Amino acid sequence: MFYNYYQYDDYNFDSCVAKGVCSTDPTISSLQEVIVMYIKQLAFYTLKLKKHGVTNKVIRDNILNTLSGLVSNTDYSQEQFKNIIITIYDNLRQSKILYERICKNNNISSDKLEAQLKLHKKFDLTTAIKQGEKEFLRKNKILDTQHRHIYEIMFVLIKNVCINLIQLKSYDKEYDDAYYSLLQLLNMMNYKKTSIEILKKVLAKFTTTNYKLVKLLHNEEKEAFGKQEPTEVSFSTRNGKAILVSGSNLKELEDVLKATNGINIDVYTHGSMILGHTYPKLKQYKQLKGQFGLGVENCLLDFATFPGSILMTKNSLQNIEYLYRGRLFTTDVNVPKGVTQIVNKDFKPLIKSALDAKGFAKGQIRNSLKIGYNDIVIERRVNEIITKINSRDIKHLIIVGILNHTSLQKRYFSRLLKTLPANCHAITLSTYTPSTNTFQINSAYDFMLMYKILEDFNKKIEQRTFDITVFLTKCDKYAISNMLNLKELGVKNIFLSHCSPISINPIITEAFKDIYKVKTISTPKEDLDILTA
Predict the structure, then answer these.
(1) Into how many domains does the chain fold?
(2) CA dihedral defined by 462, 465, 469, 474, rounded to 10 degrees?
(3) C-alpha to C-alpha distance for 244 and 234, rounded to whole angstroms
(4) What is the DSSP letter of 438?
(5) CB-side exposure of 39: number of CA atoms within 13 Å?
(6) What's this model's pTM, rounded to 2 decimal places?
(7) Which one of 192, 304, 516, 528 has the minimum C-beta count within 10 Å?
(8) What is the pLDDT of residues 379-389, one digit of tens each?
(9) Is residue 353 within 8 Å of residue 324, measured between CB atoms?
(10) CATH code, 332
């Protein structure tokens, strides 16, 4: 089997690019429209019921699981979509009846919601597909380009918040403000006429709520696994049976490590799960060996060449390829064909699959990577930069983040950093070769460090109009919320790497260019000319 592919450029093995599988089936797209329409109506009645002191945890879980699972191109069957729609429809019907009954019993008038989709007692899949097609055409007719773009951004952020809330719940914590804020955002989509400025203000407020949620989740991870510390992460493999854990749910990585304790199986991480190696409690497990592969953008070859079983933690599934069907497992509520569901932390099927697989016939030695950072060193260096900014010695600040291994990006940023003007300074949260006016931190996929640095700048920089430019090197499901958080923290210019369609829908990229003037990386010279103009 062919494992040594680290010399290739960006996204050569992305399933979108390599096989052209990024387009969503029109039937599935129509069913997604129906789900979203029912959930928007359900948000309306859930908020109305809350005003009367009525809450429902089952409906809450259904909303969060459904929205977080609506990831583009996830290979659900029509039957699975049917079951999802029936569940949400039933929640909607019950909520509507209960709300109207409460209003009647209290002798108050009930608010009416003009439903774009009619409620039917008998569900028919063919009818639902037609309804979805009709809704898609209706939206394109009544919404101009900017409204469609901002609704796309709002919906992606809503899904990010759902994922974060589900992860937070794995630590037995909830954040009601975020849940009801996302319902309010969904409810706003029920109305036809809302100005772009109002929508942007509401979105900004929701972004602030999401930022608090992200920090809360980070604190729970630190409480559960200890304070992150600098760590040398191996990218080598060794002979033996193996399990690969991909995604971002550290709690589920811990569950796998507990389940494999004492069993002769090595556990490797994939993508942003590399952060697990920096937590003291997770490092105690001797079977946690290292990192495998190039990450989500190249998961097609990563998964196909991994000779063991693979766990995708909650809300991490992408398209499922025949190359690794049967070896892929997930803890998601809705599971595509060819994937085995893990229920109630029972990892026996995952472990059996790993033991039945060939495993690594022989190990391969690759360069390791030191990630993590020392808070004291960073604070001292950041304060030095702030002093230079306040004395006008630095006129432009660039932050490059976060870790990415693609060779095209390495060449781009190597040239960018070497050609920085004398009055420019860069903080790079990646492993690129630093220049004299560059401060390098190997932070891996940790966005919280970037947020912390920006918060310090906002508190201590005397020049209120000082320009900060951020280059985002990683495209994943959190890229949208990260860009919104950066804008909220006062970043003027954001340059986004060329993202595979499997990571970010091109429509979303265009929406950010339109609404928030986000730019796509071009050449080092052209981009430097823009940010220093």
Answers:
(1) 2
(2) 90
(3) 14
(4) E
(5) 27
(6) 0.88
(7) 192
(8) 999 999 999 99
(9) no
(10) 3.40.50.2030
